[in-house]
Design brief:
heterodimer; A: 116 residues; mainly beta; OB fold (Dihydrolipoamide Acetyltransferase, E2P); 5-stranded mixed barrel; B: 396 residues; alpha/beta; 9-stranded mixed β-sheet; two-stranded antiparallel ribbon; 14 helices; 11 strands; 18% strand
């Protein structure tokens, strides 16, 4: 099991905007120089859904997805591991982890997993 | 720049068309459009084919080259246009610019998609390839999932209700029963999808808080239009020409998470404003609109962002019947994507074909907007990251 969040975000050196994923130019000021940053602090839930019609590669009945914002401004999508949507609500703090999110050709693909 | 007219339109019924290949469907719709334009035995200068997924779903590429060969339109210039679910309107935009510039006089634009020959999870996966390949797609997020997150945010910010979404679903499926080209011809009721003991089975949650009947179907289908300079329209046909009075196109961030306000569909607003400004018209001048209701929430949100209603009032308007055939601004009286279906490459072209039918006043009374003079279409790519709008005007 991996513990470190393998998320690399990019903060514009000119205006401070945080980008994730990578852009060649800042979405706000078009500057091309960025400082590499990692997500820090609490992960606050901004939006979420539960889907039942799944694409290829998932052998589960449903998936719960959410977008969280870390304390340093990094925003990222992840899978939320809960039994029911009643366990989560917008604005709550979730615990981030780096765990398998799907299996491709027998190999686990890791990504952001969030838990209450 | 020359004024550009739509002088011919063609479409085939959307649905599950097991008997037809993608090329069959594109050819049938194109021939219908050529015949409608009075060009049945003539050539065209250029062909634009809108298609999103033949390379994935049919293992076929270069569909524009294949279509000109199939239709004996050689040596016409031919290009395929792929812009996700907005491919259709993008292809028309390219045809419009080519004719308006004076470079080509006659252009065929055809859009088509064959999605039902693959199993559901493969179709879902195909559509999900529009999401970001590194920070969204690996998680299994789908376009319905994006719409679910967007809907919850809209509910929290604007007080949107499930009843308002249901009003859109009931309206559009009712209108679909009147449209011979519609995929879904089934009236639904509140009792059947909300109130009855069977509603949880009939209409389960699909992408919370959206339910099954908030979604458009996965469809096969094709549609086509013929463009030429307005000044030459009468050389081909006595059809009332419909002028493309304005167009607009705008983009937004690939991921929803990077939008300052994810409920703000900036590209819809910008594309619509561009189209209205070019036409010298305003939303209040529109008699009939076709919006991209792949999910019921989108009809409501787009009706606000395009300028027909203030933010937060589109759902109320839908529930009050203001978007019905005899309402203040009839929206998706074709049944929309919700009932006509959504063969992704065809949709933007089908929206324009529908508005041409309306502006020619050639529909049955049950679906015709009386004396319609100005129409509007909005084709929504990705989750609002590439949007194309047209303002169309009847030319006497």
């Amino acid at each position: 099991m991996k513990t470190e969040l393998e998320i690399t975000a990019y903060q514009c050196k000119a205006c401070g905007r945080v980008h994730y994923p990578y852009h060649d130019r800042c979405l706000t000021c078009k500057n091309r120089e960025f400082e590499v940053i990692k997500p820090e602090g609490d992960a606050h839930l901004l939006a979420y859904t539960q889907i039942f019609n799944l694409p290829w590669g998932f052998d589960v009945r449903f998936l719960v997805h959410g977008v969280v914002e870390f304390s340093n401004g990094v925003k990222a999508m992840g899978q939320i591991h809960v039994e029911s949507l009643e366990d989560i609500k917008t604005g709550m703090t979730l615990q981030p982890g780096w765990e398998p999110i799907r299996i491709v050709s027998g190999e686990a693909i890791y990504g952001l997993v969030l838990k209450p | 720049m020359r004024d550009v007219a739509i002088i011919g339109v063609g479409m085939i019924p959307f649905g599950r068309r097991d008997e037809d290949t993608l090329l069959d469907m594109l050819a049938y719709a194109s021939l219908n459009a050529l015949d409608d334009a009075g060009m049945g035995d003539k050539g065209v200068d250029a062909v634009y084919v809108a298609n999103m997924g033949a390379g994935i779903l049919q293992h076929q590429t270069s569909v524009a080259s294949a279509l000109v060969d199939r239709l004996s339109l050689l040596p016409a210039a031919a290009d395929a246009v792929e812009n996700g679910p907005a491919s259709g309107a993008s292809a028309i935009k390219n045809g419009l610019l080519a004719v308006a510039s004076g470079y080509y006089d006659t252009v065929l634009v055809a859009g088509g998609e064959k999605m039902r020959e693959v199993v559901g999870w493969k179709a879902t996966d195909f559509v999900a390839t529009m999401t970001h390949p590194e920070v969204e797609y690996p998680y299994g997020i789908t376009l319905p999932g994006m719409a679910g997150m967007f809907t919850r945010l809209y509910m929290e910010k604007y007080g949107l209700t499930r009843d308002q979404l249901i009003a859109v679903a009931i309206k559009n499926q009712k209108m679909g029963t009147l449209n011979p080209y519609a995929h879904v011809k089934m009236i639904i009721t509140r009792e059947g999808i909300v109130e009855s003991p069977d509603a949880a089975v009939n209409n389960p949650v699909a992408a919370d808080p959206l339910h099954f009947y908030d979604m458009c179907p996965v469809s096969d289908g094709a549609a086509a239009v013929i463009l030429c300079p307005l000044e030459k329209a009468q050389e081909f046909t006595q059809n009332v020409p419909v002028v493309i009075a304005g167009f607009g196109q705008a983009t937004d961030t690939h991921t929803l998470q990077e939008r300052d306000d994810p409920t703000n569909l900036k590209a819809v607003t910008l594309a619509s404003e561009q189209a209205f400004n070019m036409a010298g018209l305003k939303p209040k001048d529109v008699d009939v609109a076709e919006l991209h209701d792949a999910f019921t929430i989108l009809e409501i949100a787009e009706s606000e962002h395009a300028g027909f209603f203030k933010k937060g009032e589109g759902g109320i308007a839908a529930e009050n019947g203001e978007t019905s055939l005899k309402g203040k601004i009839p929206i998706n009286v074709s049944g929309g994507l919700k009932a006509r279906g959504h063969p992704v490459g065809a949709t933007g072209v089908a929206q324009v074909v529908e508005i041409v039918f309306q502006l020619r006043h050639q529909l049955d009374e049950a679906r015709q907007v009386k004396d319609a003079q100005v129409g509007f279409t909005l084709n929504f790519g990705g989750f609002g990251n590439n949007v194309v709008a047209f303002v169309l005007r009847r030319s006497e």
